[in-house]
Each structure stands twice: as C-alpha cells, then as structure tokens.
Amino acid sequence: MSNHQHLDNEMRWQIVGRLEAGQCQVKISKEFSLTPSVVCNLWKQFQDAGYIERKPGQGRPRATTSREDCHLSIIARCRRGATACQLSRYLYAATGTHVSRVTVSKRLHERGLLASVCVPLTSTNKRVRLA
User: Fold this and answer.
1) How high is the pLDDT of residue 87?
2) What percent of the chain clears pLDDT 90, i.e. is strictly above it?
3) Which cellular compartments is it found in (predicted)?
4) DSSP secondary structure string, the chain?
C-alpha cells in the first residue's frame, strides 16, 4: 500500500477556488495539511487541462474479484490437500473465471492460506513409506 492520501473532489474544488481567489499555495497547503507540491500539481493540472479529476489507476486489472477471492479461500479450506491447479479448476467450474495456479497461490497467500505444492500421496505410496 502507498502512503498517498487521495483528495476528494470537494476538497480539490475548494483548493482551486482559493487559488483562483489569489491565496498563496503555501498557506493553502498548511490549511489542508498537504505538501506544497500537491497543491502546485493540482493547480497546474487545472490550468493545463481545465479539470481536476483523478486519473484512472494504472497497472494491470486484477483477474479475480473480491467475491471470487473469498470463494477461492472457502474452496481451499474445504479441500485442504488440493493443489493450486486443482483449485483453479474448481474456481472455473464455480464462477467461470480462468486463473493460473500462480494467481491462485497469490490470492490464497493474501488471505493467509497456502495451496498444496505437490500432489498428495496415493494409498500405495503411503504403504511403501510406512514400510
């Protein structure tokens, strides 16, 4: 997570209104508890583009929604021995969303769970190991 604090539109318009009225950027930044660069950049954006809305977020959009992440964690808790590939198939069967095993592992890690890395032992392998 970043430490950036996003300004709501009302606060942005208040700042622009004070700047248009001729108030100093440093005073405005102190009143709103912002750094002067935030006020300066907002003013530049308003003068150049004529609007003050935030730009859309950058980066690749998530492959799963929060609801699908929750469903995935429930599946993982019910099927403790399932691998990430199997969990990916279960998620596809339930929601129709294709995700890779890496995505499954990341989503489970975010929720404090782990996907099995190896295939569970068969009954024959268990007997051989015990012997």
Assistant:
1) 93
2) 52
3) Nucleus
4) -----PPPHHHHHHHHHHHHTT--HHHHHHHTT--HHHHHHHHHHHHHHS--PPPPPPSPPPSS-HHHHHHHHHHHHHSTT-BHHHHHHHHHHHH-----HHHHHHHHHHTT---BSSPPPPHHHHHHHH-
pLDDT in tens, 35-77: 999 899 889 988 888 878 777 777 888 899 999 999 999 999 9
Query: What is the model's pTM?
Result: 0.52
With contact defined as beta carbons under 8 Å apart, do 63 and 97 qualify? yes
Please give the Cα distance from 28 to 37 (Å, whole number). 11
DSSP symbol at 4 = -
